[in-house]
Design goal:
This protein is an alpha/beta fold and 380 residues long. The protein folds into two domains: 131 residues, Rossmann fold (3-Layer(aba) Sandwich); 246 residues, Dihydrodipicolinate Reductase, domain 2 (2-Layer Sandwich). 34% of the residues lie in helices and 25% in strands. β11 and β12 form a beta hairpin. The chain is globular, with a radius of gyration of 21 Å. Bound molecules: alpha-L-sorbopyranose (SOE).
């Protein structure tokens, strides 16, 4: 007999859409799961825009006050899809109300706030996860399986980039619904919390903990008009950030992110070099994983590009989709995370990254920002 999981979604932006799509489609692709999500209520302050969102994605009701949403007995899980400065207060209140929580990344504004959120979900004993969705792109999950199998041997290098170009124009405002990511009061940080956090989450998952960091940050556009007040204000976010790090396993890391890489829209790439082989992945070609294996015969040795679409159990998640050779996309990483969350309710196992896992990423982000400010090496 199937069980329902009633979702209360807070927020209706880009991420609200990706998550809602995940909840809606998961029963089609993962019919074996015991729990089925039900889009019970969507919540935001702008009633008209919210109603349109609710109608588009199939939410049964709306709430304009998130505290009212938390009081409802018919809500099992709360999805927090709002600017970063609201995650902490909402997540702590949701945990106190006994709700399960699926929180958009990054977990918090800083480590101190993130720690309170971890304490709250652990005290309440509620299921929790953070939407670092790239882990669940099949090619990235395959990279994890290859590394865990030991095929790469000792890891020497981890390299990652996340490059965009959408804030080069100094007329782009900060703050407000579409551009809160540029306002440090709402976002906490710039590319470090927004983009590098993804790279760091994947890196910790694939290659283990990060011990210390040395970073360089820059804000190229120093002042921007605030979309809500119309006032010109100093920009407090990092527009670009590059950092070096050491991993606990002795490997060296090199990370770069910017919103000023003209021509790049969302170029997330990583490369891992080990003793016996290397792996590389590129979000713009997300269904492929490139693999070099030194043990191959010398004459034909070279990089192979694995089309991660086999559905006989060889390739993670793919048995839930089409026939071999037919790929899936960005949105399926969210379906896969919903499916894993629902599965975790059956098994009682946590669905990573949990709040506690995401706090480790937050610790690296805080150390990177501190190093960007003073130029020194910082322990994580
Ligand atoms: C920023 O443009 C952004 O939307 C991030 O906020 C997302 O987390 C990332 O996946 C894509 O880029």
């Amino acid at each position: 007999m199937s069980k329902t999981l009633n979702i209360g979604m807070i927020g209706y932006g880009f991420m609200g859409r990706t998550h809602s799509n995940g909840y809606n489609r998961v029963p089609n692709f993962f019919p074996e799961l015991e729990y089925k999500p039900v889009l019970k209520a969507a919540c935001a302050r702008n009633k008209e825009a919210l109603q349109e969102f609710a109608d588009t994605w199939g939410y049964e009701s709306i709430e304009t006050d998130w505290r009212e949403l938390l009081k409802r007995d018919d809500i099992d899980a709360v999805d927090i899809c709002v600017p970063n400065n609201l995650h902490g207060e909402m997540a702590i209140a949701a945990a106190e109300a006994g709700k399960m929580i699926l929180c958009e990344k990054p977990l918090a504004m800083d480590v101190a706030e993130g720690q309170k959120m971890v304490d709250a979900v652990e005290k309440a004993g509620v299921a929790n996860t953070v939407w670092y969705n790239y882990r669940r792109i099949p090619a990235v999950t395959l990279a994890k399986q290859i590394i865990d199998s030991g095929k790469l041997g000792q890891i020497f290098h981890y390299r990652a980039n996340f490059l965009q170009d959408w804030t080069i124009n100094a007329d782009v405002p900060q703050g407000g619904a579409g551009t809160w990511r540029l306002d440090s009061a709402a976002a906490g940080s710039g590319v470090t919390g927004d983009l590098l956090a993804h790279c760091i989450d994947t890196a910790i998952w694939l290659n283990g903990s990060i011990s210390n960091v040395s970073a360089m940050t820059e804000t190229f556009v120093k002042e921007r008009v605030h979309a809500e007040t119309g006032e010109k204000q100093a920009v407090g976010i990092d527009d670009a950030c590059a950092f070096l790090c050491r991993f606990g396993n002795g490997s060296l890391g090199l990370f770069e992110s910017t919103r000023y890489a003209r021509g790049h829209k969302a170029l997330y790439t990583f490369e891992i070099n080990g003793e016996h082989g290397s792996l590389k992945w590129d979000l713009h070609d997300l269904h492929r994983l490139d693999y070099f294996e030194y043990a191959d015969e010398a004459a034909t040795r070279g990089w192979r590009s694995i089309h991660v679409t086999d559905n006989g159990g060889e390739h993670p998640y793919m048995d839930h989709y089409w026939v071999p050779g037919l790929q899936i996309g960005y949105e399926h990483s969210f379906l896969n995370q919903v499916a894993d969350f629902l599965k975790s309710l059956e098994t009682g196992e946590p669905c990573g990254p949990t709040f506690a896992d995401a706090l480790e990423t937050q610790k690296v982000c805080d150390a990177v920002l501190a190093s960007g400010n003073d130029g020194g090496w910082h322990d994580v």
